[in-house]
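Anyone else keep sequences and structure tokens together like this?

Example one:
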Amino acid sequence: MTDRARPYLQVTGVQSENKGNKGRRLEAAAERTYPVAPIQVLTVQKPRNVANHSYRDFSLVPADMNLPGLPDDVEEMPFPQLLHRMLSNPAHALNMAWMPHGRAFRIMLPGYLGQQGIYQSYFRCKNYQVFLSFLNSHGFKHITSGKDRNCFYHEKLLRGLPHLVQYLALDPPKNARRVLPDPANEPDFYPITEKYPLPPANII
């Protein structure tokens, strides 16, 4: 497929020239909430009923010292922090693990996690279906094709960068709605990570 025919824009800055003034204002307002602006890697323009795989790289965004710190007590940790913590624990690597690029994760044995009571005891949810609803309400997206098929990702959940959960945890959960998949515009994280590398996992 040629660049002209592709239904999205590949950009390297934080703004796209094809956005209207309203879009630029909204984007600028969002960027002001970070000490360092994330880099817009992929911009997708789709109807609301289609998955939007626009993607920003947060690998160079530091923690914001003006925001509340993340809790140390597991009982007080928000869902995104618990998720990052589990992915950073080698004891769970056979069941749930980062992909090699560190920008998405895969659940290999969802049934086994349920049998072991992980969803209820660790994530405070009843079962795998409720766990998926937690992912959806926090803005995680599902990849349906390619090497990362059946993986989930969020631009603010990156391997080795647990401080980014600070920003993700501030995003209020939303009522998840069903959207159509858009495999043609799903991000390819392997070249993205080559350009914007991530640190190794922070082992806990």
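And example two:
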Amino acid sequence: MSGVPPGLLTCLMITAQCFVGLWLLTFLFGGSSQPAAETSKVGQSQHSLQQSFSNTTIGGKKMAAKDEESNLHFLVGAAVFVCAACVAKVAGNMSLPRAHALHILFENEADCIRVKEQLAQEPAENVYTKFQELAKQHSKCPSGKDGGSLGVFRRGAMAKEFDNAVFLTADVATVHGPVRTSFGFHLIYVTGREERKVERAV
């Protein structure tokens, strides 16, 4: 069953939020909800105040009255810029390769090597299932309860050492590791990967 791609849905949500923000800015700065009579009085008062303010000088230079229209244009321009930057970033992320992997996180390298040796004794057709079992028993990551599954993720979403291992070093359907990151030592099992040309994370 096909649906809307998550990245496209995110783009649409960001665009909708930007339009709502622009509407709010226009509502707040672009008009008044006061009755006509009150608006006329307030307008006259503001006009007198602006004339008084514009005629004052500081350091010999005449101060100009604050231009609300210019402020509104600035705010709208800033909102459009942020919106465009967010959409561009999401669109860029959608072009990155994806992978699905399991991992087992250990606090020390010795335990990591021991479990890898245990997996090496399993027949190839049993390694995936055994990896899940051992992840539930040994992994220090919350993903352990799910057999070590990290789901599908894009290039750049993980720590750089882990990312490089998944997308550049590890073979699909094999146990790879130990891989050291700031979280500890990992055994990695890549179940699937989009084979695109990628660069090493720095």
